Every structure is written in structure tokens, then in C-alpha cells.
């Protein structure tokens, strides 16, 4: 027994190290934006993209946004390259609304997504741009969006939580703004069950849309995330359904999502 124990320990150590290296490598590849996302950072006939110190601003050009139109400030998922959400921001801007895509330090790792400095910078940018704002985020970015809404309630018209079960450790039950959840029924990372556990942290009038066949990774345009399930909805359809939910909130109609794309 004593002779085999050191060998077994070495085997466990080697196996664990290889598994860790494999997991880190997978994550490094999976969280990269795909080619479509990278191309979405360029101007189109309908959208002008402007690089800012803390992210990118997508502005409608072909159809100018109304002076009182709401704008969106959006936080990316943890460890995900923020550029992966450029196609979704393009879709928001094509609908006539400005979209500010936040680039979080360290891709939101080590608490940087919801760090006071990150939120304060995003708030300063929205103040400089002016207008009324809806805040949203995906996965860990949903927590950042919720903390932002809690910290700056007077600056938020609505909160959109995409593919996230946050807030988990604080309550927005008395929030003065509308709250909307967008979930996928094939998302084990932010499943409907997990969201249900934290439902008491949201206002009674919060709206939920569950997209049939949607998984976690396809809320952005990046690779297949560890721990996810394969989607049964095409990526472009999931993006379109998410954009439809965002458009409804930005237009002041948070419950008007077609049951073809999601269910309440």
C-alpha cells in the first residue's frame, strides 16, 4: 500500500494538472468572439460604431433615434471578450436605439465586472452621452447590470437580465424600474430552476421570457462555453429573439415579446 500510494498521488496530480490546462485552454478559445462578432465592430449603412475608452457605442444612422428614445448600456458575460456581443448591439442600434457595450477590466474576472470603478466609469459615459438608459447584461454581466441598477436607480429606466440567475445576494424587490429576464430553456448555467430560486429578489411585476431551444453561449457570438448544453435554436434566431426582447423594453413595452420566440 505504501509503495503504490506515492505513485497514485503523482498520477492524480498529473491528471489534475492536465485537466486544468485543458479547461483553461478550452475557456481561452471558447470565450473569443467569432468572425461575425469581430466584423460587427465596423460601420454599416444603418449603424455607426464608435470606440470609447471603456467600450463601444453603436449609434443608428440610417434611421436616426428619436431625441427621447431610450439607450442601452450592456455588460458582457464573465471571461467573455466583450466584442462577442457586437452583433446584438448592432441589432439594437438598427432598431433606432443607441447601445453602449461595456468593456470590463480583466473580462470581468476577479469581481471586475461589478467593481465600483467599472460601474462608475459606465455611469460617467452614459451621463456624458445624455438621454435615458436601460441597463442589461448577460451571465456575470447580468450581476453587474443588477448592481449598477441598485447603485444608480434614478439613472435606470429598466433592467434586462439575459441568461443569468442574478441577483442572488441582494434584493431589487422594491426597484422603481421595470425588470425583465430573458432565459434559455437549454441553459444549465442560468437555468429557469436557478432563476426561480432567486425570484424573490425581483419585483412582483418582473417579466420573464424563456426562449425555447436557447442555450447560454448563444446569447453572445462566441464559442461553446464549458458546462453549457447544445442549443436547438439557431444562433441567429436566438440573437434575434434576444434583440426583440431588448427592443420591447427600450420601446417601453417589456411584455410585448411574441410567444413564437419566447414564453412568459
- Binned, the helix content reads 25-40%
Structural class assignment: alpha/beta
Shape: globular
User: What is the number of E strands?
Assistant: 8
**Ends distance:** 59 Å
Radius of gyration: 19 Å
Q: Could you characterize the architecture of this molecule?
A:
There is one protein chain. It is globular, with a radius of gyration of 19 Å. It has an 8-stranded mixed sheet with strand order 1-2-4-3-5-6-7-8, sandwiched between helices. 34% of the residues lie in helices and 17% in strands. With 264 residues, the chain is α/β, with parallel strands linked by helices.
Features:
17% strand, single chain, 7 helices, disordered C terminus, eight-stranded mixed β-sheet, 264 residues, alpha/beta
Entry summary:
This protein has helices at about 5-30, 35-40, 85-95, 115-130, 140-150, 190-195, 235-250, and strands spanning about 45-50, 55-60, 70-75, 100, 135-140, 160, 180-185, 205-210. By secondary structure, it is α/β, with parallel strands linked by helices.
